[in-house]
Amino acid sequence: MRHGVARFVTGFLALPVGLYLFYVVWPFLQAAGYSLTDWGGYSDRQQFVGLENYLRLFSDELIRKAFWHNVFFLITVPLFTIALALFLAFLLNVGGREDKAGIRGVFGSGLYKVIFFFPQVLSLVVIAVMWQQIYRADGQGLINGMLMKIGLVSEDDPITFMYDPEPFLGVPAVLWWLLLIAVWSGAGFYMVLFSAAMQSIPKDVYEAAILDGAGRFHTFFRITLPLLRDTVSVAWVYLGFIALDMYALVFVMTPSQGGPNHASEIFASVLNFTAFQKGQFGYACAMGVALAIFTILLAALQLRITRRERIEY
Amino acid sequence: MSTVTHTPGGLAGPDQTPPPTRTPAPRAAVGGGAGARFFNGFSHLFLAVWAIMVVYPLLWVVMSALKTDSEVIRKPLSLIPEQLQWNNFARAWTEGQIGSFFLNTVLVLTGSVFLTMLLGSMAAYVLARYDFPGNRLIYYMFLSGLTLPIYLAAVPLFKGVYNTGVVLPFLGPNSHIMLILVYVAWSLSFTVFFMHSFFHTLPNAIAEAGMVDGASHSRLFFSVMLPMAKPGLISIGIFNVLGQWNQWYLPTLLMQSVAGEPKNQVISQGLIELSVNQGYRSDWSGLFAGVTMAMLPVLIVYIVFQRQVQSGLTAGVGK
């Protein structure tokens, strides 16, 4: 019998573990190894250089820029997406009439939920290519075209969107435009998530609050929001990962994948540029390892901050 | 008993209601009927505006796909084409190669989603329900893949695939089978993580009853445990279909032509190149048609199965 179990376990694990080791773990380990060399990627010549690549990261102007852009997305993407999603979920669930049964969701909330979820099922690439056309820097673009029609933007001076490196609040305008797309595509999903969480809060909690004379704002801020804490913090962690992964948008939409003039560089775009355009594989791997360490620290930090006792009901 | 829910001022109208010293402002504003009606109206307005912001760009893309090129330039904003240009779709399908992108994507996804589900649940099942040395180690090895950025592995992964291709061409760059295996490997982390928690909660009694009846371990898995995990399988299945359909980085990295043969591009990868090429050719209507064809099938499937898709994807986050 024991023998049968061992064979069964090995048989079931062999393929998945084998594939995972070969296509995921092994490349990661190799990357860690290459990060200690000056390998160029195209020749077989590589020399051990120790931590030189890592030291170089700290003095690299481009990396510093990309790092701050990553931090910008890391803060703004979750912040704006969650705020908007919570607001939409609030309107959807509390915006309806008050009657005997308490406060209701708005009429047609099912339809709204279906529509708001649309961007979630579209691929980032489709979204990027679509927004490329919306953001066109001439009258043919959706936004510029509209603003020209109502006379807010003159034909000779359109909004340049992806070609605008000018800082706004200290951050290049192009990043703000990218942020808008991220929020546009993410808000609906998290609204549905928050809505579901709101609906799983038992009715009698609300009934008690209403009996005590709480209005809908009070109910929302004093009861719903605190009870949503868990869901919101999970959403924050997920959005954090998404924010680190804005590369699809940068890759498709910005001039020379990180431009104009490096105004929209993020870690991933610098890494790809270094590896495949400049041919400095060793150095690119060091960037990757740094990014991985950063990600893991961040995940650990977020889990630590958001950990709290669960409320059971 | 609806009056119980209102502050007394509700009947008199919100303006001259309760002593401001005691009642906070928001309560006064919404407690009454007029306030509630105003709030209801505001909710509808805001929700409708956001709904338009979501739908309008999509509609604009679809409608632009039915215009002529000159119309796209002359009247970029109009949502009603002068004459429906269905041939844009034909052009994007053949010249723009959307047709072959679709074929490649379907070929790859059929294999990769099936294998991901099968291998993922097999690994998750064994890790969740059997105790053996190294169990934790393997589980954490799968978990660690969730936090590591894919870009880090890019360079060695490409090199590994390239070297394998020298010996075994069907596992080299630009091969469907290679892409299937890579997709599976990269999807295992989350699939194992998700299904692990599912198998963990299945009752022991049923497994024991199966064993008593003389079922082998693998038979127990395929005919008893796997069917019991069906809700989880649907969730993670939807998640993987969407995730792999949307994958663009791995194909861009790995589906590269090596010896000059045509690239076997998948849809996301192809669309990126289409957007560049059609831009050079100023074939805007063709580009819009391509985007439309890439997004409509997913949207339609979503609208039909919206309940399952929504709960499937949100369950993925909740775990």
UniProtKB/TrEMBL annotation, chain A:
UniProt topology in membrane: Multi-pass membrane protein
Domain of life: Bacteria
Keywords, comma-separated and alphabetical: Cell membrane, Membrane, Transmembrane, Transmembrane helix, Transport
InterPro entries: ABC_transporter_permease (IPR051393), MetI-like (IPR000515), MetI-like_sf (IPR035906)
Main location: membrane
Pfam families: BPD_transp_1
Cell location: Cell membrane
PROSITE patterns in alphabetical order: ABC_TM1
Transmembrane segments: 12-29, 71-94, 114-134, 174-193, 232-253, 281-301
Domain ABC transmembrane type-1: 67-302
UniProt record similarity statement: Belongs to the binding-protein-dependent transport system permease family.
Protein name as catalogued: Sugar ABC transporter permease
Automatic annotation (TrEMBL), chain B:
PROSITE patterns per UniProt: ABC_TM1 (PS50928)
Transmembrane regions: 45-66, 101-125, 137-157, 177-199, 220-242, 284-305
Domain ABC transmembrane type-1: start-end pairs: 102-305
Region of interest: Disordered: 1-27
InterPro entries: MetI-like, MetI-like_sf
Subcellular location: Cell membrane
Membrane association type: Multi-pass membrane protein
Main location: membrane
Sorted UniProt keywords: Cell membrane, Membrane, Transmembrane, Transmembrane helix, Transport
Family, similarity comment: Belongs to the binding-protein-dependent transport system permease family.
The protein's name: Sugar ABC transporter permease
Source organism (scientific name): Micromonospora lutea
